[in-house]
Structure formats: C-alpha cells, structure tokens
Amino acid sequence: MELLSGADMIARFLKDEGVERIYGYPGGAALHIYDALFRQDSVQHILVRHEQAATHAADGYARASGKPGVVLVTSGPGATNAVTGIATAYMDSIPMVVLCGQVASHLIGEDAFQETDIVGVTRPVVKHSFSIRHPSEIPEVLKKAFYLASTGRPGPVVVDIPKDMTAPTERYEYVYPKKVKIRSYNPVTRGHSGQIKKAVDMMLKARRPVFYTGGGIVTGRASEALTDLVQRLGFPITTTLMGIGGYPQGDRQSLGWLGMHGSYEANMAMHHADLIVAIGARFDDRVTNNTSKFCPTAKIVHVDIDPSSISKTVRADVPIVGAAGSVINEMISLVQDREPANPEALGEWWKSIDGWRAERKGRLYEPSKPGEALKPQEVIEAVYRATRGEAFVTTDVGQHQMFAAQYYKFAKPNRFITSGGLGTMGFGFPAAMGVKLSYPQDDVVCFTGEGSFQMMMQELSTCKQFDVGVKIVNLNNQSLGMVRQWQDLNYKSRHAHSYMESLPDFAKLIEAYGFTAIKVTTHEELAPALERAFADTNELVFLDIYVDPFEHVYPMQVPLGSMRDMLLSKTERT
Amino acid sequence: MRHIISILLENEPGALSRVVGLFSQRNFNIETLNVAPTEDPSLSRLTVTTVGDDRVIEQITKHLNKLIDVVKLVDLTEGNHIERELMLVKVKALGAARDEVKRTADIFRAQIVDVTPSVYTVQITGDAGKLDAFIQAMAPIGILEVARTGVSGIARGDKLLTL
Predict the structure, then answer these.
(1) Looking at CA atoms only, how far is residue A162 from chain B in angstroms?
(2) Which homologous superfamily is A3-173 in?
(3) Residue A312, min C-alpha distance to chain B (Å)
(4) CB atoms < 10 A from the CB of A134, how many?
(5) A193-360 adopts what CATH topology?
(6) Across residues A172-191, what is the average pLDDT?
(7) Which of A245, A253, A222, A414 minimizes the C-alpha distance to A329?
(8) Which of chain A's termini has less CB crowding within 10 Å, N or C?
(9) Does the predicted interface ipTM exceed a cut of 0.85?
(10) Partner-chain residue, chosen from B59, B72, B163, that has the shortest CB–CB distance to A312
(11) What is the pLDDT of residues A374-397, one digit of tens each?
(12) A38-48 pLDDT, tens per residue?
C-alpha cells in the first residue's frame, strides 16, 4: 500500500494513465500539483504563455493522436482563460481533461482571491465536470474523467481541485483504478441490426445515393472501414469540414467537402440525391443551409453515436444509434456478395456528377498574373506540393481556413486540424504546437492570417523554450478577410473594423524570438521561400505571405437557400 | 403539448444545475419543476413539466439522457399516470367571505390548515387543472398569496421508474 498526497496522486495517476505530456500554467491554487510534477520525470509539462493556448495545444494533440489532451491550470483567471479552448473542444467532440486548481474548500463561496466557480462557468461546454471533495477520491475521479472524455461521443471534462485536496501533509492510499463504472453512462457501441439491414436495403436500391460523413469517422477511427464500404458500393462521398481525410480526397469517388464553402459538385449531389447516408455528421447549419429546402428528394439514413444528434435539425428516415466503425462493418458484411439493384441509374448519377465537376474544372479561382498579388489559393496549393500532401495542417479561422480545406487535399484522417464548430480564431498556432511536440518527425503547418495569429502569437515564446519547429504560413491580406467578404456581400462593402491597420513587421517580431521569418510579396519569391521553410523539419519558420486582400472564398451558399444555391465567383451564381 | 418528465438524478452537488442549465442552454421550456430525495439516498427524483411538439420533446429527453448525472427518465404523459400538485393559498376571510371560502374549499376537497381572524390558509392537492380551477374560484374573494409545489407524478399500474 502506498500513501501519497493528493498532488502526488495526480502526478502518479497521469503516469499510470500513460499521459506523456500536459500543457499548463502555474498559479497559487495549483502549486502543490506543480511541486509534485517537479519531483517526477514521467510526465512532461509544457509551459504555455496563456491558458487558452494550453487547451488548444492539448486539443491539437488529441485531434492528431485520438487520445485525450491534458491541461493543468490554476483557479480563477487561469481557469477562465481556458474556457474558450474547452468550448472549442466541446463543439468538435474532442477528448480533453482539464485539471483546474481551486481555492481551498473552506474559502469556496467567499469570493476568495482568484476564486471562480469554474464548474458553473464551464457547465454548458463540457461533457461532464467533477469537484474533488476528498483527496482519497482523486484516482477514481481522474479515471472517470479520462473514461468520459475519451469514450462514446468524446468531449472535454473539467476536474476542479481545491488546494487543500492536494496538500502535501495529507496522505492517502493510492491505487491506480484500471476500470471505473458509471451507472448512468453506458455509451452504445453496436447499432440496431434491424435498422442497419433496412439502411443497407435502401442503399442497394438507391438511384442517386451520397455518403455524407463527418468528424465521427475520424474520432471513431472508422476511415478504413468507411473507405472499404464506399468503394464496394461505388457511391459518391462528401465529408464535412470535420470529416476531411475520413475518405481519401484524391479518390474519384470523393466529391470533397460540402456546405457553405463546400465544393460545387458535393452540394449539387446532395441536393439531387435520393438517398443520403450520413455517418458521424450532425447536419449543422454550415452544412444544410436552409433545412426546409434541404435535399428535397432524399431519404436520410443517419448513423451517430449520440442519439441527440439524430433528427436534431433534419429528420432521419432511418436513425441508427451506434459507433461509426461497428455500424459500417456490419453494413459491409450485409453488402458482401450483393450488387446495387440499379446499376444504370448509378451510371446516370455519376454522369451528372462528372458533369458538375467539369463545369467548374479550371475555374475555381483566377490565378494571379505576373506583377499581381498572390492568390491565397495558389499559396495553399504550393504548400501542398512542397509537403507532398503529407503534413499535419492546422488552421485558424477565416478565409485562409476555408482555402486550406479546399486546396490542401488530405489522404488520411487526423491530418486536418481545425476549429470547425466554434470557429475559434487563435486556435491554429497552439494546436500546431501540440501536434509537433508529439509528431517531431512530421511537417506541421499552421495556416493562419494576420488577424488570427495576433490572438495567440505569444506562444512563439513557448516554441522557443521547447524548441517546437512548426511552420507558420501567414496569409497576410491586411484585413479580416472573411468579415470583409461578408461586408462586401451584405453591407455594400462598408468595411467596419475588418481592416488591419498598424500591422507589426512580422519578420522583426519573429526574429525577436530568434526564429526565421521570410516575407513573400511576389510569385517569384514563393517557391524559394517554401524550399527554405521546409528544409529542416524541426525549425520554426514563419512565412509572411502577402496575398490579394480582395479575394473571396467561393463557392458560397446563398443564405436561406438550398444546398444548390451558391455564389460561384464575384459574378456567377447557380 | 404538455409533457411530464420524471427523472432519477444522482444526488450529487451541481446535478440539479446541469438539468436546469440544459433547459435554458437549449431554449427548452420549464413550466414546473419539483425535486426531492427518494427512498434511495443516492438518488433524487426530479419532475419537470414542459411544453413542446414531438420533435422538441424528443430532443429534451435525449439531451437529458446524455447528462451523466441523469440515471433514468420517463415521459409520464406517454402512458397512464397520476399527476399531483400541492398548493397552499392564503385568502381574505372576512364577513360573508369566511363561509364562502369554506364552502368552496369543501367543494374542491381542500382543507383549511391555518386560521386568523382575517385570513384562511387553504391546502389543496390535485392535478394542475384542478389547482388552476380553485384559483379561479377564489379570485373574486381575494387571494393574498399562492405557493405551489410544482407537479409530481407516477405511472399507473405495474410500471416503475427505478434502477
């Protein structure tokens, strides 16, 4: 039997749970825990420069690895600074455990120094939260936190730890709990066989089917099974932004991603489909556009691990509650040795799709002419080539995010790391840090803009301390591009606060931290800059690339329209 | 349509706020709320009445079920059930009204549980409709104060909401 203080239990538990790295920032209420971390060397602590970055870094790691990211912050402002990152993880169903220091139990409720009711503050943006009430609870509560964060539909779990729970003088028995049971929590695994059979029968009879798959494929590690099923059936497939990489984008059956800035062919196929097979996607408003005009001729099969996602915004004809991988495998076994009943209709369907593809081929954007500013799309394509499409890509939020998703083609899951649900500016750079620390051999590229980057640029200091060699590609359009685009379209180009005056000299800023920065303003400078940037995988390089500030992201769905109502350029619409 | 949802909830600090927070967060409506411990000290029973179409009620029950502190729930209005609410009403009881209050209370099988020279406190139990009717009947006489417990309910027959 081993007697440990609460703080030592936390450090030991993290080791026993297999956690290699945590992200955090110390402060009064967390100091016992920090002291325990100091006295061990199994768990590495990465000191960020702002608690929001700790959550994004842990989140980036979780998205790349599929394992829960771990954060440690102090009470009050430490914890409230983490809230945006917790909400980001919640919206995208990312497993994360956030340990928050809290003022000592006897001070709770007295407006003590650095006291915040963080369980209350985070309640709407966590999967669950715990408050430690006795040090002896710590191992079991932490195990429950990790179990909840990483099973079922994953999500962030907050553990609030009053300072007296970690006091070095109070020691209790520590046993690592291998298993925990929560009586009210039994996440489903297998789907209902009868429903799956019904869905497969509909799939085989379909004339104009489309797979529409989301982040559930990535978190559910179901992309191999999905690829198998889709290729057996020969159906087209479109993914959500979160589902990118769940099916290889270079494949002929892939229509790219769908929704507000999705591909023309994906949105057209959805609108005209007679069967939509949705797996691990949640029909959110950035996908469906106006739900009353959504896919008027389609029957809907909806597979999701979370029953509350089914029929939330769009009614499912065949709801299936289950884990993506298990349901897909069951579908594969039912599809085996059977052929689609309407091969001619499917052939016609592919003809329509190929027609839509041909309509837009070569017309997605207008490349820059000599002497003109670079187009952001060109830059993404150049980075794609420079990294052979194999990098981990994180993004911030805005036009550059959409361009990255459109023009960097992903063959594998867990490679495109973006804040899809919450749309958190500032996410990309710390997320890239979290990925790079765990995948040091890989290129990790953060596409950002000068707006987003300035929200988290203090993390350059963290990169300096821990030698984190991410590549930052700043698509500098000297404005908040997406805001400006909406103002162009909806506010007669009244650019209220969407310009970026007084931009810093990014090169000097980066150099102040001892890193390399390259400013690119012309076509000719781009290729050598990329070559230099990717010469050494482990060197942080910042590319400040000036791009056309007037470029818009297209296609763009028309507000309140159907899936097929899109602006295709500044002058064309469907 | 009005629904009565009964929930077995972990008797944990903060559990109630998760349920209540869910309703405001998701723009669901709470008409009445009633919560108390059960015979099992680890569980509270919470009963909420809410209004919504089938789609909304489906979302409410699904989201409630997702809460880790919710152990089990039932929509009582899906089957035969008993609905009860308790109300205490203070009414002016002066002169002729004293008899009128007493008579009306008798008609509703209510009891007068406290008396002063000018005020009767009436206790009445029933479904929400009966309580509303009693308020209507008493209004002309002069209601001073109303305290309702919110609806509680249980399924008829062998059906149980237990672990």
Answers:
(1) 15
(2) Thiamin diphosphate (ThDP)-binding fold, Pyr/PP domains (3.40.50.970)
(3) 7
(4) 12
(5) Rossmann fold (3.40.50)
(6) 94
(7) A222
(8) N
(9) yes
(10) B59
(11) 999 999 999 999 999 999 999 999
(12) 999 999 999 99
